[in-house]
Amino acid sequence: MMQRRMLTKEDEAAVGADETEVRREDQDKINRFSRLHQREMLLEDELKTKAKDKEDLEEISNELELADEDDKIPYKIGDSFISLPLPQVQELLSSLTEKIEEGVSTVEEKLSEIREEMQQLKVTLYARFGRSINLET
Q: Sign of the C-alpha dihedral, residues 61, 64, 65, 69?
């Protein structure tokens, strides 16, 4: 969470003294950083959702290990539940877990790329504007 504070007289004077003109390319970089930050937050939420889904599937798989081999298990497909044999349900759950793991790795790769680009933009913008700009997320 970002904390707000009052500028001291020295900080206020320093900000006014070394004000740098914002060029079009600087504004483009600031806008790019903002869009990347928004995307980063969305991907983090997606990652949390996928992690929760995976955890739920693992919990269900563990519960099914206690079921009898001959039982028919209700499995949700779309809006309907279909009774399937236990081995088939376990196979479907494991394939679904693999899909989620692939999705998690894809999202993590995207997040890594975004954070790398954000870091490069931070370096560039802080080099140009110093303390006059706040890019902390």
A: negative
Please give the helix or strand (H or E) that residue 108 lies within, else none: helix 86-129
Q: What is the rounded CA–CA span in Å between residue 31 and residue 26? A: 9
**DSSP 8-class letter at 66:** T
Say if CB 29 and CB 122 are below 8 A apart.
Answer: no
Residues 6+ apart with CB under 8 A from 41: none
Q: Which tokens sit at 18?
A: 């070394």
Each residue's pLDDT expressed in tens, for the chain with a length of 137 residues = 556 666 676 666 555 555 678 899 999 999 999 999 999 999 999 999 999 999 999 999 999 988 888 889 898 888 999 999 999 999 999 999 999 999 999 999 999 999 999 999 999 999 988 888 888 86
